[in-house]
Amino acid sequence: MEIRQVQLATRSLDGTARFYERLGCPVELVDGVVEVAVGSTQLVFRELPGMTGALHLAITIPTGTFDAAAAWVAEIAIVLVDADGRDQFDGPPNWNSRSVYFEGPDQQLLELIERRDLVATRSASAALAPAHAGVVPFLSVSEVGVPVPDVLGAVETLRHAGLEPYANSPGEGFAAVGDADGLVILVSPERRWFPTGDRLPSTAPVVLDVGLTAPIELAEGVVVR
User: Do 9 and 202 form a contact (C-beta atoms < 8 A)?
Assistant: First the structure.
């Protein structure tokens, strides 16, 4: 499942644009929105000063670049830790991944993730041709976190559209739907984001374009199409 585009909200267009430029992503201000290219994914931010909570996005990096990516992101952003002070994390069982989390603009909780199950040639080709010299290449946004009132019900709705739970059985408070290329992370509204546990999911509208034949509304303002 490829996440082609994500429409999101931000309290500050300027702050969001500056941050993603610092990450080395191409950024454009077009008709009052900020468009950001993160590998093959386009992020579109609209300003919503009254939004609450925090967005969560994960960015896939090529297999074999994790150590370099973790060191690089620590130089340009605040790396987030859990209650035990850890700043690097293996993924859930059966994910075969490793992650580092960092503070994004406007309380976004961002993640760089190495997914070892992705086709090796894809990672190798990206590593050989980074978009910006000296910057760890980004393949795509591969996770978008969204709160829904009924996680298991949302899983079934997506299953009817042809998207299956990923790796592990879904739970009442958390489920990942899709595959290693792209995941919708469904969480209950009261579940705080890992690893800090200090912020709730954003209630702002989110629209994910993953190539479905018809759009699906999972919650108010949360659409997968």
Answer: yes
Residue type for position 193: W
Contact 15, 106 (CB under 8 A): yes
Q: What is the pTM of this model?
A: 0.93
Cα four-point dihedral sign 187, 58, 53, 4: negative
Closest CA to 54 of 199, 196, 195: 199
Q: Provide the residue-wise pLDDT of the chain in tens; the chain has 225 residues.
A: 999 999 999 999 999 999 999 999 999 999 999 999 999 999 999 999 999 999 999 999 999 999 999 999 999 999 999 999 999 999 999 999 999 999 999 989 999 999 999 865 454 445 444 444 346 899 999 999 999 999 999 999 999 999 999 999 999 999 999 999 999 999 999 999 999 999 999 999 999 999 999 999 999 999 999
Q: What is the helix, strand, coil percentage profile of the chain, to 5?
A: 20, 35, 45
